[in-house]
Structure formats: C-alpha cells, structure tokens
Amino acid sequence: MISTLYFVALLSSTMAWGRVGLWSEGSAKNETGGGSGDRCSCDAFLPSSTFPIKDLVAVEQTAGEISHKLELEMGKLDDYETKLTAYAEKIIKLTAEIEKMEKNPDAYRDVDVDEMKVQIKQVEALIKELQLSIRGSTTVFKSLRIQITAMVGTLNRLEKTYDKNVVLVTRREYVKVQLQLEECERRHQELFNPNIGSCAHTGIIKVSKPIVSHLNAHLNSGYKYGGWGKDSKPVPDRESMYWYSGYTSSSIVDIRFYTNYKNLILRNQFQHHNLHSSWTGTGNNFIIRDNTLYYQCNNPFGLAKLNFTTMKYEHRVIARASTRFSYSNSPNQNFDFAADESGLWVTFATEVSSGRMVIAKINEPSFGVEEEWQTSVYKPGVSNAFMVCGVLYAVRTVDIQTEEIFYKYDTKTKQESHVSVPFERFQDKFSNLDYNPTDQKLYMYNDGYYVNYHLWFNHTAKATVEPPFLLS
User: Fold this and answer.
1) DSSP letter string over 407-448?
2) Where along the chain do its domains lie?
3) Which residues contact 208 (CB under 8 A, 6 or more apart)?
4) Sign of CA dihedral 268, 284, 203, 363
5) Please, which residues have CB within 8 angstroms of residue 220's CB and are 6 or more apart in sequence?
6) Strands across the sheet with 415-424, in order?
7) Which parts of 104-203 fold into alpha helices (H)?
8) How far apart are CA 76 and CA 65, in angstroms?
9) What is the C-alpha end-to-end distance of the chain, expressed in Å?
10) Is the pLDDT of residue 287 over 50?
11) Helix (H/G/I), strand (E/B), else coil: 466
C-alpha cells in the first residue's frame, strides 16, 4: 500500500521542479531495514507550466500603489475646491473695488491704487500656483491610466491561460482602483471643465488617448459589433445610467442597462430588453436618448424608435435613403443616429447624391425630418461620423492605429471644411462612434471593448461659471 506522506512528498517535489509526463511506476527499498524489503511507489509528474503567481502579486502591488495615489489625488481635489471658492471670493471683492475706483478715481490716492495692484499680483500668483497643481494632477491621471491598461493586459493574459477563478480576486482589485480613477477624473472634470453644454467654440482641436473601460458584458471578443454609452438626454434619476448592446453580427437583438459606471464594469445590469422579431434592428449606429432607442431597421428599410418607458415602437421611412452606402468599417450602417447640444440627428446617403452624406434634423416628438443639408463627403470613404453643436464631424482611417477627424459641416452656416485631428484606436476596427453632450466625450465600441475619449474645443467665449483661475 502506498504511503500517503510518501506520495505527497513526491507530488510536491514534482510540482516544484515541473517534470514532464503523467505517471511512472517502480519500487523503493525499505530504508529502515524492517519488513519484506521492497514496496511499490508511484511518481506523479505534472506539466512544466506552473501558475505565474509572481505576475498576480505584481498586479496586486500595483493596484495598492494606484489606490494610494488616487486617495492623495482625491484629497487634492478637496483642496482645489476650497481654494477655488476662496479665490473666487477674492476676485469678486477686487472687481467691486476696481469698479468703485473707475467710477470715482479722485477719491483714491496713489497708495490705494498701488495696494490694489499688489492684491491683484498676489491673486495672479495664487492662480498660477493652482494651475501648476492641476496640470500635475492631470499628468498623474495619465500615468495611472497607463498602469491600469498594463494591468488589464496581464489579467486578460492570465485569464486566457489559467483558471479564471484564481485570477478573479486580483481582477476585483483592478476594478476597485479603476472605479477610484473614474471617480477622481469625474470630480476633476466637474471642477475644471465648466464648458459642458456650451457651444461657444469653433470646434474640436484635440482628442485624448483612448480610455479603455472593459471587454463587453459578454466578456467575449467575438461580440465585435455593437455600441455603448450614456443617455444623451437622461430622464430624472437616470443621469448616471450606461447602456450596452452587442452581437456577433451587425444585428441589434437586445440592450442592457446599468445604473452607473461601477455596475457597467461589474456587469450588474438592472434591465435587459430583448427586441422581438418585429423590432430587431441592424447597423450599429444606434443611440439612447430620453430613455428611447433610435436605430435602423430593414423590414421595411427605415428609422425605428423604441421608448423603454412606454414600450411604444414607431417606424419611419425616408424614401430617398439608399441601402448601398455604408461606412467603411462595417456593413449595414446606412442610417447613423447622433445627438448633441441642439437635439437629434440622422445621416444617410442617397442615389441622387451619388453616395455623399446627407444630414437630417429629427423632430423628437413627431419622429419626422425637420430640415436637411447636403454635404460633399462620400460616405464609403468615412469610417464613422458624429454631431457636436450642430456640426457634422467625419472620421476616416489613417493606418492600423490611427483615426482622423478630417471633415466638418456646420448646419448653421452651411459651410464645410477639411480639418486634421488625429486620434488613436485601441483595437483594429470599431463599429460605433458617438458624441455625448452630457459629458463632452466620444464613446467608441472597438472590437468588443468599451472605449471613450475626452475632447478639447477651441473656446471663443468663457462659460458663465468658469472659475477665474482658468484665465491665462
């Protein structure tokens, strides 16, 4: 009979040295000198591929370091908020004093004017100091994003190679720090990007690096077609809601809702709607607005609208729209819905326009077309498009890593122009790209991954709530 301790010792030794094979049989001498002499033994040989615990430990240590840095940044944000309030009060008082001086200059002595100049210089110095701190926080966020992206790569590699349950605990740590970073960036944006909702700018001048959130809710890279994002006109109590719809083809078969970003990442949906056969759509250029799905349907070919509050379905046909012209990245993207600060839009191409894109403004209550604009950009040469403040921005593929905003058409002035604003993709191809006016971000569904981008605009006027420290 095999000794249990002897077997365990052999097994432990084999695991430590990683010998190749399965079993070998043999005999071992009785070293105590007693008994009949020989006894039977079995050696267990395990594969040489041992679990890389060092990688997991490194990820956990990185998660701890990032968490600590984020706690420090959250403390800084509290400090920024306090300083902003104090600086604003000082500037209001200084402004009032300067106005008094301008109205009655003879009532003030030179020494009073000199003292006012000193106070202005002091505030300017404080503002410059705060600007440097803010830039430092932005740099920290970028650095942490890079670290978290590296963590994603390590965890994905381990999950593909080893037992997912073993990696799960570490992935939870990753999710925790990622959520901390999102909260930190959200507060940073609220404090220092007061221009959300404002169209006092001449257009997009820069797009951030891709911010990769997660593989889709199915955790399946085969779900290459779909979209995700936020409601562009959220109903009360759903301002933080996210949505996702994905499939292995360009069909739209269902949609999932999450109360907030945390639940999106944790795949904890609060609603899941299956689109029955008469509501099924296609095209991957759908959006959620006012808790309503706007999308393309093919039977008959046209526009579809499904309100998730009332579950009312509506359909409209645009007779001129053609089924021949899609975006370059994926099929059936004939209608592209978009939403911005000025409302709801849809773009398409016609035979009469020879495949050039047409912009149409949609009346949301009637679901009818209010007005149309003809552009000169050829739709099959475009990888995707979106609307910002009544301006169409068209995107094309430059190389395997780069997209470029290359064209824009302003519906207010009916002027079009060519621009060059390059930005980076996370994966090779994407099926959905939309702007959301509630946070001024681009949302991309990129080969099954949730990706988003911050936008920078060339502002021509200051927002009414803009903190004075942002002045140059």
Assistant:
1) EEEETTTTEEEEEEEEEE-SSS-EEEEEEETTTTEEEEEETT
2) 4-44, 53-188, 200-470
3) 423, 453, 454, 455, 456
4) negative
5) 448
6) 384-388, 391-397, 402-410, 415-424
7) 110-161, 164-192
8) 17
9) 85
10) yes
11) coil
Residues in the chain, overall count = 472
| 193-243 per-position pLDDT tens digit | 567 788 988 999 999 889 888 889 998 989 999 999 999 999 998 988 999
CA atoms of 50 and 375, how far apart (whole Å):
59
Rounded to an integer, what is the distance from CA 137 to the centroid of its chain?
A: 20
Cα 67 to Cα 179, 348, 411, 462: the distances in Å are: 10, 46, 46, 35
Angle, vertex CA 42, rays to CA 37 and CA 48, nearest 5: 145
Structure tokens, 229: 């994002």
- Three-state SS for 180? helix
Per-residue confidence (pLDDT) for residue 273, from 0 to 100: 93
Distance CA 33, CA 56 (A): 47
> How far is it, in rounded angstroms, from Cα 354 to Cα 337?
21
Could you tell me which CATH number the domain at 200-470 has?
2.115.10
Closest CA to 246 of 269, 260, 234, 235: 269
The answer to whether the beta carbons of residues 435 and 388 sit under 8 Å apart is: yes
The closest of 430, 345, 357 to 388, measured between CA atoms, is 345
Residue 245 CB burial class (10 angstroms; 0-12, 13-18, ≥19)? buried
